[in-house]
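Hi C.,

You asked whether I'd gotten around to modeling the 84-residue construct. I have! Everything is below, sequence then structure, no commentary in between.
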Amino acid sequence: KDWWHPQWIPLTSDPGGGNHHCLDLAPGPQGNVGQIITMWHDDSDRSLLANSFAEFLEQFAHALEAGEYAYSEEYNSILAVDEI
């Protein structure tokens, strides 16, 4: 497994943690170009979050509408409500 690949484009990050949701432009044989994966700095597993960027945005929009995310002044960022 790759720990990091230059064709994984970070879309999000956590404040100071080095964890990202990435646009995957170099998927494995079972993946799709443009899928969204997790890249946790301390874990080599890369979980699939969405099959496309559009699907990722749709999931995020639904989560925002459901109140699952909120703005954190402390981190100057949008975070999951359970992390604030």
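If it helps when you're writing up: The chain has one domain: 8-83.

Thanks,
B.
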